[in-house]
């Protein structure tokens, strides 16, 4: 939604975007909310902007240092290392494809929107009725599977047709 701001020539807008995005992580929030993880998103967006030559090397380094500081102090060094390692793998294998990854890539936004409403609610509801360890594992697995199924249908019925419509309107 805000990515078009980064494609323009206005440097002030880009700086404001990155400062705001990284700083959102400093706002006290629950780990389930986007705000808590916004500095991670900033690192990925900075990488994408640098690859697409939308920002200078100085801007890339400066805001990555700021994001690193925020993530390390807010979430911890281990979390930062995991994030950087993931980005390193993406950079090293840009053409890596597999069917499972493609599927989850397609439904990822829908899964993000639905998992706490459908999956977590189901797990919360059923976990009070099943107490044995193997039962809890089954409940969590069921919540995961149901979330994926709902996310797929959400993607198929809403998200995918909307993307097609947007492409047609863009022409």
How many extended strands? 0
Number of domains: 2
Q: Characterize the main sheet.
A: none
Tally of alpha and pi helices: 7
Provide the residue-averaged pLDDT. Answer: 88
- Structural class comes to mainly alpha
Poorly predicted tracts of residues: none
In whole angstroms, how far apart are the ends? 19 Å
How much strand? under 5%
**How do the helices and strands follow one another from N- to C-terminus?**
HHHHHHH
User: Rounded to an integer, what's the Rg over CA atoms?
Assistant: 19 Å
Helix share of residues? Answer: over 70%
Keywords: Membrane, Transmembrane, Transmembrane helix
Transmembrane segments: 33-49, 61-89, 109-126, 138-155
Protein name: Acyltransferase 3 domain-containing protein
Can you lay out the helices and strands and say which pair or pack?
Blueprint: H1 3-7, H2 11-24, H3 34-51, H4 57-74, H5 77-92, H6 99-127, H7 133-170
Helix pairs in contact: 2-3, 2-4, 3-4, 3-5, 4-5, 6-7
How would you describe what is shown here?
It is a single chain. The chain folds into two domains: 3-92, no CATH class; 99-170. It has helices at residues 3-7, 11-24, 34-51, 57-74, 77-92, 99-127, 133-170. Helix content is 81%, strand content 0%. The two termini are 19 Å apart. With 171 residues, it is mainly alpha-helical. The longest helix is centred in the last third of the chain and has 38 residues, at 133-170. Helix 2 (11-24) runs antiparallel to helix 3, helix 2 packs parallel to helix 4 and helix 4 runs antiparallel to helix 5 (77-92).
């Amino acid at each position: 939604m805000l990515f078009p701001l980064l494609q323009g020539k206005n440097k002030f807008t880009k700086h404001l975007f990155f400062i705001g995005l990284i700083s959102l992580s400093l706002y006290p929030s629950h780990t389930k909310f986007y705000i808590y993880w916004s500095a991670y998103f900033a690192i990925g967006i900075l990488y994408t902007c640098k690859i697409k030559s939308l920002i200078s090397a100085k801007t890339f380094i400066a805001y990555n240092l700021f994001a690193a500081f925020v993530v390390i102090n807010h979430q911890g060094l281990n979390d930062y290392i995991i994030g950087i390692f993931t980005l390193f793998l993406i950079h090293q294998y840009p053409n890596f494809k597999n069917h499972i990854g493609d599927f989850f890539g397609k439904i990822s936004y829908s899964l993000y929107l639905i998992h706490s409403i459908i999956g977590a609610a189901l797990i919360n509801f059923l976990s009070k009725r099943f107490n044995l360890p193997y039962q809890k594992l089954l409940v969590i697995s069921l919540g995961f599977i149901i979330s994926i199924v709902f996310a797929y249908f959400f993607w198929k019925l809403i998200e995918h047709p909307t993307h097609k419509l947007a492409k047609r309107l863009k022409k």
